[in-house]
Amino acid sequence: MPNIPNLIFALIMGALMSFTITLVTTFVRVGSAENFLWVWLEVWVFAYPVAIIGILAFRSFASKLTARIVEKLTH
Questions:
Q1: Which DSSP string do the residues of 13-59 spell out, in sequence order?
Q2: SS3 for 1?
Q3: From the CB of residue 19, how many other CB atoms can be counted at a distance below 10 Å?
Q4: Rounded to whole angstroms, how far apart are CA atoms 14 and 46?
Q5: Angle at 10 between CA 36 and CA 51, to 5 degrees
Q6: Whole-structure pTM value
Q7: Please, which residues have CB within 8 angstroms of residue 20's CB and are 6 or more apart in sequence?
């Protein structure tokens, strides 16, 4: 059974992260072109699932690494 809170987190965080990153990088690449919105949406459609998979795959590792770093910084 999938962990529903983790899945919901990945969907929301993946949307926000991929939305922001693709928006900025598309703007840097094509500027304020007439078809900017369509170019950006085309890129975002591919980036969103990749972001979700990445979050689900690396969340545990990132959490453990964060805890270790915080522990070293606080001691």
A1: HHHHHHHHHHHHHHHHHH-S-TTHHHHHHHHHHHHHHHHHHHHHHHH
A2: coil
A3: 15
A4: 12
A5: 45
A6: 0.76
A7: none
